[in-house]
From TrEMBL:
Domain of life from the UniProt record: Bacteria
InterPro entries in the record: Cation_efflux (IPR002524), Cation_efflux_CTD (IPR027470), Cation_efflux_CTD_sf (IPR036837), Cation_efflux_TM (IPR058533), Cation_efflux_TMD_sf (IPR027469), CDF/SLC30A (IPR050681)
Listed name of the protein: Cation transporter
This protein's UniProt keywords: Ion transport, Membrane, Transmembrane, Transmembrane helix, Transport
Organism lineage string: Bacteria, Bacillati, Actinomycetota, Actinomycetes, Propionibacteriales
Length: 274
């Protein structure tokens, strides 16, 4: 990052300077990711009934916001340089960009081997991948400047980097937004869940069916399930409960479920929400 800043000042390249700004956000992203990874391992205690599992989601959201902010700042300057392009030293830009490509390929390969189902890790990976594409764009811009003298290529490379950052930011913020708003997991069809439960013997209806995501590897579900009166009379309710949990775990990978079994007459005593 320091090398890029020095080179950007010497060469006049916005693409290198913008990538240095993005690399600064990379440093923050990885630091936040490491910090959040440690927090998520803390056990639940007191009022923190889920522990610190949501730290992963907050980390990914912060990474998305930093990508968005850097992209906007660089985009404004890139447009200004398209209108009045300054002189840019293309050869120096090419050398630094080539080194950056090699380094980021190595780093991206290492992080890609991690468990990227975690939005926390995915957030850091998106920063690194965007940085790699940015270096490739900067390398091409430097080549164009050296061969043709067209300095606007530097500003165009910066805009491409902005587009990549905006794409990564949107992906992270849309996913974390769904989780923070407690939207049902995108891969989970609640109608299908309801039908599966209704197909079980002795189940008469399902209501107050809710699903959300605590962290990227912990989906959760709660439901009120109306069952036949006989299940409570003959002691079949625990067996049915085990069947329901097995159905949710086996078909939908829902290992954390909170279920309330009710007799039909109980429906009139509560406000049903879904």
């Amino acid at each position: 990052m320091i090398t890029e800043i020095i080179t950007a000042v010497i060469s006049g390249s916005l693409a290198l300077l913008s990538d240095a700004g993005h690399m600064l956000s990379d440093i923050g992203a990885i630091a936040i990711a490491l910090w959040a990874a440690r927090l998520t391992r803390r056990r639940p205690q007191g009022s923190w009934t889920w522990g610190w599992k949501r730290a992963e989601i907050m980390s990914a959201a912060v990474n998305g916001v930093t990508l968005l902010v850097v992209a906007i700042l660089v985009g404004i300057e890139a447009v200004r340089r398209l209108v009045t392009p300054p002189a840019v030293g293309g050869g120096l830009v090419m050398v630094i960009a080539a080194v950056g490509v090699v380094v980021n390929v190595a780093v991206a390969w290492l992080v890609a081997r991690a468990n990227r189902r975690s939005l926390n890790v995915e957030g850091a990976y998106q920063h690194i991948l965007t940085d790699l594409f940015g270096f490739i764009g900067t390398l091409v811009a430097g080549l164009v400047i050296v061969t043709t003298g067209w300095t606007r290529a530097d500003a165009i490379a910066s805009l491409i980097i902005c587009g990549l950052m905006l794409r990564a930011a949107w992906s992270l913020l849309s996913q974390t937004g769904r989780i923070l708003m407690e939207v049902a997991p995108a891969s989970l069809d609640l109608d299908e869940v309801r039908h599966h439960l209704m197909d079980l013997d002795h189940v008469r209806s399902v209501h107050d069916l809710h699903a959300w995501t605590v962290s990227s590897d912990l989906p959760a579900l709660s439901a009120h399930i109306v069952v036949e009166d006989s299940c409570f009379a003959d002691g079949h309710a625990p067996i049915l409960l085990a069947q329901i949990q097995q159905c949710l775990s086996g078909h939908f990978d829902l290992d954390h479920s909170t279920l309330q079994l009710e007799p039909p007459r109980h429906a009139g005593t509560e406000n049903q929400t879904m």
